[in-house]
Amino acid sequence: SLASTAITCFTRGLDLRKGTEDVLCPADCPLWQFYVFGDGVYASLSSICGAAIHRGVITNAGGAVRVQTLPGQDSYPAVNANGIQSQALSRWASSFSVSAGTKNTALEAVGRSVSTARPSTGKRPKKTLDKKAGNKDCKADIAFLIDGSYNIGQRRFNLQKNFVGKVAVMLGIGTEGPHVGVVQASEHPKIEFYLKNFTAAKEVLFAIKELGFRGGNSNTGKALKHTAQKFFTLENGARKGIPKIIVVFLDGWPSDDLEEAGIVAREFGVNVFIVSVAKPTTEELGMVQDIGFVDKAVCRSNGFFSYQMPTWFGTTKYVKPLVQKLCSHEQMLCSKTCYNSVNIGFLIDGSSSVGESNFRLVLEFVSNVAKAFEISDIGSKVAAVQFTYDQRTEFSFTDHITKEKVLSAIRNIRYMSGGTATGDAISFTTRNVFGPVKDGPNKNFLVVLTDGQSYDDVRGPAAAAQKAGITVFSVGVAWAPLDDLKDMASEPRESHTFFTREFTGLEQMVPDIIRGICRDFLDSKQ
Q1: Calpha distance 515→513 (Å, rounded)
Q2: pLDDT band at 290 (very low <50, low <70, confident <90, very high)
Q3: Within its chain, how far is the Cα of 96 from the centroid?
Q4: Are 438 and 444 in contact (CB under 8 A)?
Q5: pLDDT of residue 289
Q6: Burial of 377 by CB count in 10 Å (0-12 exposed, 13-18 middle, 19+ buried)?
Q7: Which one-letter DSSP state was computed for residue 432?
Q8: How far is CA 149 from the centre of its chain?
Q9: I want to staple 157 with a disulfide (CB 3.0 to 4.6 A). Which of 1, 213, 317, 507 is the partner?
Q10: From CA 252, how far away is CA 213, in angstroms rounded?
Q11: 121 in a domain, yes or no?
Q12: In this structure, is residue 135 part of a structural domain?
């Protein structure tokens, strides 16, 4: 029988050179790291050992697998089996199947080196490592939204693919550099490949070459909205804290409306660029639904996010300027940061022990925290509730959408004076203030300010708030018992609990609260 080749967890079908090959999979491969495309017949991009576990040929204990090369398929389904979720993939050039290998060759394999079955290129390893990391100065997760409509036609579609390929290569794709994926816009949008599918320019180029022209109306708006909503999830390979970018290629003009899609993209923190080729002529303008379509779709209509090329011919000189734009981290005005993507609710103790002058110091503290955030209709939002035995919503998240209005509303809060029922107040705020925004794009924070012992249980209501996705910071002054403060605060409790003896000490806590909110924002699934 054939001698088995020992392979790694990450060896893929396309790394093998023979039509039929016996391989030996190692034990304990991390299941979540497998990329597997298809079911039974797997795209050659798939990890061999991943496919073998998915198929039930081996378990995670590893073992012998026979790999059979097969022709490419038009589509590979996504199927969950044996702890591995395979992914769907449209057309791929070659496939393979897996079956149980012959056990008796296992011993021979052990003595071999556990390298991938890819022949060594003899290059110095140092260089290839750097190449793998990619251009670290260009941190971006990019979706190329290509035009696959009848407007562009097959021939220009191929020129468009060449251009996108050149841009992809010049970007310096790599594990620590930019990651890219492609979506084709036509009648219906189709995600061709995701950010996580490839981390080397060579693979991306190959995948772009393989793309088939779909044809149909150019429903760019529909495709842009779909991409903004579905493409940049953590499961699909988007990375935290890295700008999300969609580069829309448009030949002529869209068949549908881009305005709503532009709004959705901005809500999701995506920076939209439009590359328009062969702009509509004066005679054609009558056929365009909305002449201002570019300005409505881009992140900001400041000129930076729109790019024009006269035709698809001779586009090489346009590659570098576009790449420079895509790598300008600080120009990505639509990215989500902790400053523009949070809802902060302040729960303010208005009990009689606080007193009018200390109450003013509390409001000053609230103002100073709120001031740090970019408050707007598509940015961060602030709400305030005052409580004694009763609760009063001073203003909700949707009442004021500019920073000036929020700060003036805080200044105008009147001191209630009364008892202290903090638990009830937390429940009230969770339900009435956070309830209406719980499905929104922002991350939710509650800052509870109190100066004394609550008459009711705080632990239950605080746990319910946290369960509803609200991160709780507790800020205690004077007689507020540390146990209550810790019971209200989110985990880790030490970094979400603050205390000062005097109301004048609140001022020093402002930067810590802001930093805490930003730290939690980055740790969350944004």
Answers
A1: 5
A2: low
A3: 32
A4: yes
A5: 61
A6: exposed
A7: I
A8: 28
A9: 213
A10: 17
A11: no
A12: no
Strand partners, 84: 81
3-state secondary structure at position 493: helix
Q: Verify that 92 and 41 share a domain, yes or no.
A: yes
Q: Which residue pairs, CB below 8 angstroms and at least 24 apart, start in 152-155? A: 152/218, 152/251, 152/252, 154/213
- The residue count of the chain comes to 526
On whether both 82 and 200 belong to a single domain, the answer is: no
Determine phi and psi for 163, rounding to 5 degrees.
-65, -45
Q: What's the CA dihedral at 331, 337, 341, 347 to 10 degrees?
A: -140
* Structural contact between residues 65 and 25, judged by C-beta atoms closer than 8 angstroms: yes
Distance CA 399, CA 345 (A): 13
Asked if 165 and 208 touch (Cβ cutoff 8 Å), the reply is: yes
As a whole number of angstroms, the distance between CA 241 and CA 323 comes to 20
Which of 307, 331, 355 marks a domain boundary? 331
Q: Where are the alpha helices (DSSP H) in 412-474?
A: 422-429, 459-467
Q: Mean pLDDT over residues 250-277, rounded?
A: 90
List the domain range (segments joined by +) for residue 424.
342-524
Q: What is the bridge-based pairing of β-strands 41-43 and 94-100?
A: antiparallel
Task: Find how far residue 173's CA is from the centre of its chain.
Answer: 18
Per the DSSP assignment, residues forming a β-bridge with 179 are 141
CA angle 335, 340, 345 (to 5 degrees): 150
Decide if 20 contacts 68 (C-beta within 8 A). Answer: yes
Tell me the average pLDDT across 507-525: 86
Other CB atoms within 10 Å distance of the CB of residue 56:
11
CB atoms within 10 A of CB 468: 14
**Whose structure tokens read 């203003």?**
395
Cβ atoms of 252 and 280 within 8 Å: the answer is: yes
- How many domains are there within the chain? 3
C-alpha 59, offset from chain centre: 32
**Beta-ladder partners of 270:** 244
Residue 292 token pair: 């201002």
Backbone angles phi, psi at 145, to 5 degrees: -100, 100
């249980």: which residue's tokens? 457
Least confident of 44-48, 80-84, 279-283, 386-390: 279-283
User: What CA–CA distance (Å, rounded) separates 223 from 244?
Assistant: 16
Angle at CA 164, nearest 5°, toward 161 and 170? 140
**Nearest-angstrom CA–CA distance, 370 and 380:** 9
CATH code of the domain in which 410 resides: 3.40.50.410
Token digits for 31?
Answer: 């299941």
Let me know: does 136 contact 177? Beta carbons within 8 Å. Answer: yes
- Phi and psi for 147 in degrees, rounded to 5? -85, 115
Calpha distance 341→441 (Å, rounded): 7
Measured CA to CA, the distance from residue 480 to residue 256 in angstroms comes to 58
Lowest-confidence pick of 10-14, 390-394, 403-407, 486-490: 10-14
